[in-house]
Design a protein that fits this description.
- Helices cover 36% and strands 0% of the residues.
- By secondary structure, it is mainly α.
- The protein has one domain.
- The longest helix has 12 residues.
- The radius of gyration is 11 Å and the shape is globular.
- Bound molecules: zinc ion.
- The site of zinc ion has 7 residues, from helix 2.
């Protein structure tokens, strides 16, 4: 697991993602532009209705 302040080294999607870990991943991968796990986290938060992107058609971009 990675933590804020430490550059992420693993950008692969994970098998299980909780809403909590999705929040963490969004922070850790904040500077990633094209990142599978960030995309997965974003979708997870949308799914949980805790994060509604303004640019829904461009999720993950
Ligand atoms: Zn990333």
């Amino acid at each position: 697991m990675t933590y804020p302040g430490i550059p992420p080294t693993n950008h692969r999607a994970v098998p299980v993602m909780t809403v909590g870990s999705a929040h963490l991943i969004m922070q850790v991968h904040i500077e990633c532009t094209s990142c599978p796990v960030k995309r997965q986290a974003k979708l997870r938060l949308v799914e949980a209705k805790v994060f509604v992107p303004a640019d829904a058609p461009h999720v993950g971009s």
